[in-house]
Amino acid sequence: MTTTLSLETRPTLPPALARLDELAGNLAYAWDRDIRRVFWRLDHRLWLECENNPKLVLRRIPQAVLEQFAEDRDFLEDYYRALTSFDTYMSSGAGADVDAQLDPERDLVAYFCAEFGLHESLPIYSGGLGILAGDHCKAVSDLGVPFVAVGLLYRQGYFTQTIDAQGRQQANAHTVDFDELPITLCRGGDGAELRVGVEIGERDVQLRIWQARIGKATLYLLDSDVDGNDEADRAITYQLYGGDSDTRIQQETVLGVGGVRALRAVGRQPTVWHINEGHAAFQILERIRERVAGGLPFDVALEAVAAGTVFTTHTPVPAGHDIFHHAQMRWFLGRLLGQFGVDESVLLGLGVDHNGGDRFNMTTLALRGSRFHNGVSKIHGGVASRMESYLWPQVSATENPIRYVTNGVHLHTFIARAWTRLFHDSFRGWRMQLLSTDHWQCIDSIAYDRYVAVRRQLKRDLLTDIAARVRRQLRRNGVPETIVSKATRYVDDGNSKALVLGFARRFATYKRATLILKDEARLARLLNDPQRPAILIFAGKAHPKDQPGQELIRKLYETSMKPEFIGRLIMIEGYDMLLARNLVQGCDVWLNNPEYPMEASGTSGEKAGVNGVVNVSVLDGWWDEGYVADGHDGPNGYAIEPIDPRYWYSLLGDEVARQKRDEEEAKQLLGILEEQVIPTYYGDDNAGYAPEWIRISKNSMKTLIPRFNAARMVMDYVRGFYGPAARQTARFTADDCAVAKTYAAWKQKVRQCWNGVGLDVPQAPKILPQGAALELSVGARLNGLSPDDVIVECLIGQMDGERFITERTCPLQATGDGTGFRASIDPLPGLQHLRVRIRPIHPAMSHPFELGAAVWA
Ligand SMILES: *Cc1c(COP(=O)(O)O)cnc(C)c1O
């Protein structure tokens, strides 16, 4: 037998450049372009070869080059500037608005998510959810929120995508070398690697803990690929969203249960636990288990845990909600479920949704185990309230506790360097003014020529990149050169006049990537107008198991090769964060045409909009809030009106109606392009960048930057969720969970009595002279509850058809013996309607309708 040894030589950093290691080890480079520039300057080509990965550059760069730069004045100046601003950033504390909500001595937010999209050099993301989680961490670091994040480290990450000559998506699994990632292994005091174990089935699966630095925030990543685990267990964390449902439940056990144990192992004690999408909801079980092991009864432990837990749901699409069979729960989590001191049915019951049966719904667990819940846009908050309303059966969806925080994007990551340079020259202190709509009026003061020069340059950079990508893609597939040159002739002519439209995102079917192809003849005519040409660029991955999604890619590729579309319509492979940044900066128009109301939020349009790219989008998700039709300076983009939103629910399963809706919305989309977008962009002289177009583009920047950046989003969470959850944790857990104990006991009493609670028909006159007070009284049956356990309230309002619109709410006072309630009320003028209800109330409640109980008279 022959032994082969492998050996890699690595350069040693000269003392003058010693801190390059630190810069390469903090994902601040994902948004700090001065840091990226330092690595790029070392060796442009190597930087590209290493796919923008600073740590890899430092491993591969020749020693001689380092020695040379250690003496290079000009380089050292860049290096010291990057270091100084990094040091200033790292030592800055939280603002007063964060400190008012979270006590840095006491509070810590732990944020759990299955994917994190921070930078292309850490490929542990698939799409919008991951990028959003990454942006959340970055903004948290900027704002100085006490925060740690927890995720999984996937050896194969998400697949990289190529598209073959037939337009078929090839999902390529790459095994990454963890040594090349911007992460370090967590070690104990003795230097040995830190491990935590999780019981899965009959095995004790060992996990390593890695740590990534994101500015001031820390992300812990778990990995089951360690010596000592058997082959199957080592594979648990191989692939993001890979494998089957059994893989998924094991991954989620690692994330949820292992994640809590990892935080304990590294000595972090969160007071607020944010579950970002249901994948991480098993952390609730682990935290309850900890408290049960500490001596609390299950129901008290549940209250103590839920009081400090925030849950964000991200999609109405069923595939986004994991559901496991009870048999799977028993098989994989059986040993864990035996540690709660309650019947297994109680634990499985936490995941039973409105469909009942033996299915365990992770979203349901997350909602039952948290007291603060939200969707990700105004529309989605409403949709989620309706979808999950079974958890608050006596409460209308509009009143149940699901609220919303509209997603935002991390501005520094996605805004082009050309813009930040311009801001730096022209708008002092802009970094401190991210949330000020007044401040961003300053966009108007950018001179037309200067503004257009930036937009033009960004488009030119994009087209150069696209041309290179198309050539690489087609040549690899053996496409003849004559066709390659046809396919690149419009993006490659250095002419940045043509209108460039972009559409890039995951190819989930509800996003309707091919909607614009409903009328191919009309589209071809628009794109090929010799006076006013346009180019349409598509990019995006479909999940490897999503055949219909892959069919969309194939269809777009096939269309892009037709004579009337070649060069004008482009389907580009390999969508990732780098390509995403280029597209959202360089296009003129950003398209989004999802099926209402499936988008939840969407964020790529926000990234585009803050760069002055004009959105043309269905009024769904964030755009319903962001679109300004007729502001003081005119519109900030274009809106496709969904065909009768209310009608959507009746469309489920109705293919004919769906088709009809798609056709009508496609007609609207093409109409907007033909009659508004193209003429406005080209102007009367067909030169492009007409003044009216620039006005819309500036409106986009100035209205969207302050409202849809991640700092606004994180502050919404801090004020509305993290602060309240931290206070609830403090309250519930003080004195050995005294409040949790009384509250759990009270809830149990209410649940036992509630079935017999009721109100009689209220007594009130039908007509009152104006100015007189309304004397209202109602008899109540409390069925063993005391008047202090309930509130009786009168809602005064108007009827809108069948719907009751509340205008005022007045509480009634209990009369002596608790069998009656009365109030003296100032009525509204004219005709009005009254409704009276009774609901349980307790000072420890996180939300007035937390129990989902309310009975009407
Ligand atoms: C922003 C982003 C997304 C999300 O795009 P949507 O339009 O919100 O679906 C997906 N993938 C990448 C790489 C992104 O940067």
From TrEMBL:
<dbReference type="GO" id="GO:0030170">
    <property type="term" value="F:pyridoxal phosphate binding"/>
</dbReference>
<keyword id="KW-0663">Pyridoxal phosphate</keyword>
<dbReference type="InterPro" id="IPR000811">
    <property type="entry name" value="Glyco_trans_35"/>
</dbReference>
<dbReference type="InterPro" id="IPR011834">
    <property type="entry name" value="Agluc_phsphrylas"/>
</dbReference>
<keyword id="KW-0021">Allosteric enzyme</keyword>
<feature type="modified residue" description="N6-(pyridoxal phosphate)lysine">
    <location>
        <position position="607"/>
    </location>
</feature>
<feature type="domain" description="DUF3417">
    <location>
        <begin position="13"/>
        <end position="122"/>
    </location>
</feature>
<dbReference type="Pfam" id="PF11897">
    <property type="entry name" value="DUF3417"/>
</dbReference>
<comment type="similarity">
    <text>Belongs to the glycogen phosphorylase family.</text>
</comment>
<protein>
    <submittedName>
        <fullName>Glycosyltransferase family 1 protein</fullName>
    </submittedName>
</protein>
<dbReference type="Pfam" id="PF00343">
    <property type="entry name" value="Phosphorylase"/>
</dbReference>
<dbReference type="InterPro" id="IPR052182">
    <property type="entry name" value="Glycogen/Maltodextrin_Phosph"/>
</dbReference>
<dbReference type="GO" id="GO:0005975">
    <property type="term" value="P:carbohydrate metabolic process"/>
</dbReference>
<dbReference type="InterPro" id="IPR024517">
    <property type="entry name" value="Glycogen_phosphorylase_DUF3417"/>
</dbReference>
<dbReference type="GO" id="GO:0008184">
    <property type="term" value="F:glycogen phosphorylase activity"/>
</dbReference>
